[in-house]
Write a structure and sequence with these properties.
The protein is an alpha/beta fold. The protein has helices at about 10-25, 35-45, 50-65, 80, 95-105, 120-135, 150-155, 155-170, 260-270; strands at about 5-10, 30-35, 70, 90, 110-115, 140-145, 210, 235, 255. Strand 1, helix 1 and strand 2 form a beta-alpha-beta unit. Helix 5 (about 95-105) crosses helix 6.
Length: about 280
C-alpha cells in the first residue's frame, strides 16, 4: 500500500488532499507535514538557504514516515521543493495543472489568465507556465486578486472563495466595459477549517489584471477591462482557490486548479495500482 506525503503551509489543506487521495486511490495512505512559517518567511525574506533547508528537513521526515513521493502544496515554494536532492520524488503541486493549461491554450487562441491571491505566487506560476509552453505560442496574462488573501487569513474561507470566483468571472468575460472587479460570486459551501497564520499581506492591490510577458514572442496583451478580450483557459495559481471551480462551471472556458491533478500525478508516481488517473 503506497504512502503519499504532503507538505503544506496551511492546516486547511490537510483535509483537502486527504479527501482527494481517498477518492483517487482508496488503497493509498497519506502522511502530512504543516509548517505555516515557511510561507511567512518566504514572503518576508525570499526563499533563501534557511527556507530550503527546512523544506528539505520536512521532505526527509515524510520519507522517513514511509512516503514514496511527496507533494509540496504551496505554489510559492513548490518550485524550490521539486529541485531538492531528496530520498523520494518531490512534486510541485501546480506542474500537472500548468501542463494541462498550456495544452488547452495551445489548442485554442493561446491566451492564459493566471489568477493568484498572493503576489509571491505569480512569478513562480508564470515561470512554470512558460517552461511548460516551450516554443508554443501561448500568452500569459497575470490577473492578481490580492484583496482576497486577507479573507483566507482571517478564516473566512467562504468569502475568500466567492471573491476569487467573482474575480474570475470578470477576468474571463469575453467583453468587458468596466474594470475587472472581485465582487463576490454565489455562495460557496462554508468551511470551518483554519486559515494560515502567516502575516497578513500588505494593503490590497487592485484586482485588475496586470499583463505579463508572454511565453511566446508575441507582444504582451493589455489587461482586461474596457476592450474585447478573452482567454482560452484560466489558471487558479493556489491550491486554496480550488473550491472556486465549483462556482464557475458555467463559464465557457476551462478554469483549472492544482490539487486533484497533483494528487493523481503523485499516485501515478508512487505506482498505486488501478488508478487510471492523470500520470
Amino acid at each position: 500500500m503506497p504512502i503519499i506525503g504532503f507538505l503544506h503551509t496551511a492546516e486547511v489543506h490537510v483535509a483537502t488532499f486527504r479527501d482527494l487521495l481517498a477518492d483517487l486511490a482508496p488503497g493509498a495512505a497519506d502522511v502530512h507535514a504543516v509548517d505555516e512559517t515557511l510561507l511567512a518567511d518566504a514572503r518576508a525574506h525570499g526563499v533563501g538557504a534557511d527556507v530550503r533547508a527546512r523544506l528539505a528537513a520536512h521532505v526527509q521526515a515524510l520519507a522517513d514516515a514511509g512516503a514514496r513521493v511527496v507533494v509540496c502544496t504551496c505554489s510559492t515554494l513548490s518550485g524550490h521543493a521539486e529541485t531538492l536532492a531528496a530520498a523520494v520524488p518531490v512534486l510541485r503541486v501546480d506542474r500537472p495543472m500548468a501542463q494541462a493549461a498550456v495544452a488547452a491554450a495551445a489548442a485554442g487562441g493561446g491566451r492564459v489568465a493566471v489568477v493568484a491571491a498572493l503576489a509571491s505566487t505569480l512569478a513562480p506560476t508564470t515561470a512554470l507556465l512558460r517552461e511548460c509552453a516551450g516554443d508554443a505560442a501561448v500568452e500569459l496574462v497575470e490577473a492578481p486578486c490580492l484583496d482576497a488573501w486577507p479573507l483566507f487569513e482571517s478564516g473566512d474561507i467562504d468569502g475568500y472563495v466567492r471573491r476569487i470566483a467573482g474575480h474570475v468571472r470578470a477576468v474571463a468575460a469575453p467583453v468587458s466595459s468596466a474594470p475587472v472587479s472581485s465582487a463576490p460570486a454565489p455562495s460557496a459551501p462554508a468551511s470551518s477549517a483554519p486559515a494560515s497564520s502567516a502575516p497578513a499581506s500588505s494593503a490590497p492591490a487592485s484586482s485588475a489584471p496586470a499583463s505579463s510577458a508572454p511565453a511566446s514572442s508575441a507582444p504582451a496583451s493589455s489587461a482586461p477591462g474596457g476592450s474585447a478580450v478573452g482567454f482560452d483557459v484560466v489558471v487558479l495559481a493556489q491550491a486554496s482557490m480550488a473550491p472556486a471551480v465549483d462556482l464557475l462551471r458555467d463559464l465557457p472556458v476551462p478554469v483549472l486548479s492544482s490539487p486533484r491533478a497533483a494528487v493523481a500525478r503523485a499516485v501515478a508516481v508512487a505506482g498505486s495500482p488501478g488508478t487510471g488517473v492523470y500520470g
